[in-house]
Amino acid sequence: MDCCGEIAHQTAVVHIHPSLFFRRKTNRATAFCVIARKLPEDPYGRMLGSTDYCRRVGSSDIGNESVYIKKGLQHPDYFSPMEKIEVGNQEIADFMEEVVLENGNLRVAVLPALGGKIASIRIHPEGEELLQAPLRPYAPRTQYMSFDAGDASGWDECLPSVAGCEIEIASRAVTIPDHGDFWQVVWLVESRSEYELTLAAQGFSLPLNFRKKLRLEGESLHIEYSVRNRSAEPVDYLWSAHPGFAVEEGDRILLPPSVREVTVEGSRKNRLGNQGTRHSWPHTHANGQTIDFSVAGKATDGIGDKLFAKAPAEGWCAIERKRLKRKVAFHFDAAQLPYLGLWICYGGWPETQTQRQHCVAMEPCTTEGDSLAAAIKEGRARRISAGSEDRWALELRVTGVS
To answer: In whole angstroms, what is the distance from residue 48 CA to residue 75 CA?
Structure first.
């Protein structure tokens, strides 16, 4: 694997070389782990107060220090990288281990090692899954891989861009990967409790630190986000939620009455016209057909449309799952997140695979359009000054409908 984690240790920035990752078979799965050496400052192997994020697997003769296997980014106070070693038959942590928040209404499963992905949201008591299932088996991600080379499922975070692009900063070109940095990197679990989970990660294309706190309360999942510029220069970015919600034919996309128009970002086989074409919501005409955007189609329809609207002042958007008798809604502050992306996919993507998405992604976001390069050129990107931090929040609420 060619991804490298970046950590701060004392005053230096240390890049974890791919050789620090190793692979071995366990009874459950193939595990990818980072080997780290425990520093004397913390004799108990703790990491941000969590003892379950690293496991002692024995001792070595290297510096007479205990050897740990650690999942996630190295914490600057407690760990420093060391050479790869084999631990034989000793227990190692499963790379695919999930962190679960669960109450009487929802079960939310997160995979810190896979971009901090929310892999599953199930409703109780039925146990039905709300998110798009993986199109491919979960596998470690590498920097600059394409999004369709992954599992293309669940709920990822897109930062600092959705589309891959190239921008200029400090008189040099920087390549931003497809769907941004943070779906590709390992996230560190900073804290967890029965109903709360805080994760953080560092970007690699731009000097951004990203943190999210999940809190399960009743029928809602609350998420608080923050992004910090760790450099001495301003940084432009855009962020978009990227949750693929599973749908079935006849389910409905619900938007407030204030949403009357959408703009095309992309459309498979150009069925809605070129980028920038505007259509009325929810009904429109294109290529001689009458289209009702609000009604979900079949998995064989071959549709893949990306649309944008101004965020409704009412601050919500929803999907009504008819068979499940549930409304899956986002609630947010339109001043914080002034745009709403809609990815409507009924078997139209990925075009190179036989397994394709059947989902709708409701995507509250900071900027209209997927490309950071275009947003910068048109003055639409969000700018964060040196050492500063931006914050916003999102609530996912799942309620019953008759």
So the answer is: 8
Work out the angle at residue 152's Cα, subtended by the Cα atoms of residues 147 and 155, and round it to the nearest 5 degrees: 105
Q: Which of 132, 130, 155, 138 is nearest to 358 (CA)?
A: 132
Residue whose pair of structure tokens reads 């420093």 in the numeric block: 80
* pLDDT tens column, 80-125: 232 222 323 222 234 578 999 999 999 999 999 999 999 999 999 9
Q: Smallest Cα–Cα separation from 359: which of 152, 49, 165?
A: 152
Give tens-digit pLDDT for 324-368. Answer: 999 999 999 999 999 999 999 999 999 999 999 999 999 999 999
Long-range contacts of 373-378 (CB under 8 A, 24+ apart): 373/161, 373/165, 373/166, 373/167, 373/176, 374/165, 375/236, 375/238, 376/167, 376/236
Check residue 170 and give its pLDDT: 81
Q: Cβ atoms within 10 A of the Cβ of 128, count?
A: 14
Taking residue 191's Cβ as centre, other Cβ atoms within 10 Å add up to 14
The answer to whether residues 337 and 330 touch, using CB atoms and an 8 Å cutoff, is no
Burial class (CB in 10 A: 0-12, 13-18, 19+), 131: buried
Q: How far apart are CA 162 and CA 166, in angstroms?
A: 12
Q: Is the pTM of this model over 0.85?
A: no
